[in-house]
Automatic annotation (TrEMBL):
Family: Belongs to the binding-protein-dependent transport system permease family. CysTW subfamily.
Ranges annotated as spanning the membrane: 21-47, 67-97, 109-127, 163-183, 279-301
PROSITE patterns recorded: ABC_TM1
Protein's organism: Kocuria oceani
Taxonomic lineage of the native organism: Bacteria, Bacillati, Actinomycetota, Actinomycetes, Micrococcales
Gene name, Swiss-Prot/TrEMBL: pstC
Protein's name according to its UniProt entry: Phosphate transport system permease protein
Keywords, alphabetical: Cell membrane, Membrane, Phosphate transport, Transmembrane, Transmembrane helix, Transport
């Protein structure tokens, strides 16, 4: 009898605990949505004067969209350059750590990669503007001299090295730990039975990775890349220090271009009135871009999840 009573009390307490935990989880989810909605509403209301102002009153004298469009392009270009450089390197480093390197090497390399994520962005910016930019000048001169027929490398190269390509390289180094760390955790979670079965059928190590590890981790790699893209889109100080802002140009080896985040960081302290509203409107555009990127990433992950190899 006492055992039955105790079991009922335990079950009742468990149900109460489930209800409390469910309520807390629901509250946390609602809180996130409420904060996101509040941020979006604040940005929209503060940016409204810019959308209503005459075109000649906005910076540049041609309207808000003419003002913001070059920075949108610069933001996307810098992020794409960073992804093109960091994604293959990050995935390959993660594969090396998880499937090739011995433990005495894999652990130190993993620690160093994780340490890169802890370095403040202003440090990356200071290193980029003092060391990397000047080191890239001879390379830019070579690109302009030998590949100048390509619009991306056309024109006289920058003598300071503070170009969009330099900013992309710095961003690539900053997002590399995100892609590497997340990919590494996914690779080591690949079912060992899948790997052993592929090897038992005569597959080489690379064939085993291609047939089992990469399909299993593909949705997670997409998520890692999209998370890194969000970091690259919103980076401020590193880009502000490395990039010599100027008019929009297709050349990656010339000074010029600007990103939304760097524009806000450089001009916000002295901004007031309509100028302040312009910068907040720029922040709203960046908010929308980031939101759209994440929605696309979730759609891609959901579409290919059932073919991930985990089933």
């Amino acid at each position: 009898m006492s055992t039955t009573v105790t079991a009922r009390k335990t079950a009742s307490g468990g149900r109460a605990g489930d209800s409390i935990f469910s309520g807390l989880s629901l509250g946390a989810g609602v809180l996130i949505l409420a904060v996101l909605a509040a941020v979006a509403l604040f940005l929209f209301l503060q940016a409204l004067p810019t959308f209503q102002a005459p075109a000649e009153d906005v910076s540049g004298g041609a309207g808000f969209w003419s003002y913001i469009w070059p920075m949108v392009i610069g933001t996307v270009v810098a992020a794409v350059i960073a992804l093109v450089i960091a994604t293959p390197i990050g995935v390959l480093v993660a594969l090396y750590i998880s499937h090739y390197a011995p433990a005495r090497i894999a652990k130190p390399v993993g620690y160093v990669i994780d340490l890169l994520a802890a370095i403040p962005s202003v440090i990356y910016g200071a290193w980029g503007t003092t060391v990397l930019a000047s080191s890239m000048v001879p390379f830019y001169a070579w690109l302009s001299g030998n590949l100048g027929f390509i619009p991306f490398f056309a024109g006289p190269p920058s003598q300071t090295g503070k170009t969009m390509l330099t900013a992309g390289v710095v961003l690539a180094i900053m997002i590399l730990p995100i892609i590497t760390a997340m990919s590494r955790e996914l690779f080591v979670q690949t079912p060992k039975l899948h790997e052993e079965a592929a090897l038992a059928l005569g597959a080489t190590r690379w064939e085993m990775i291609r047939m089992t590890v990469l399909p299993f981790a593909r949705p997670g790699i997409v998520s890692a890349v999209m998370l890194a893209l969000g970091r690259a889109l919103g980076e401020t100080m590193a880009v502000a220090l490395v990039l010599s802002s100027g008019p929009l140009t297709t050349s990656l080896v010339q000074s010029g271009n600007q990103t939304i985040a760097a524009e806000i960081a450089l001009n916000f302290p002295e901004a007031y009135g309509l100028r302040l509203s312009e910068l907040i409107a720029a922040g709203l555009i960046l908010f929308v871009i980031t939101l759209v990127v994440n929605m696309i990433a979730r759609a891609i992950v959901a579409r290919y999840k059932e073919f991930s190899g985990a089933n």
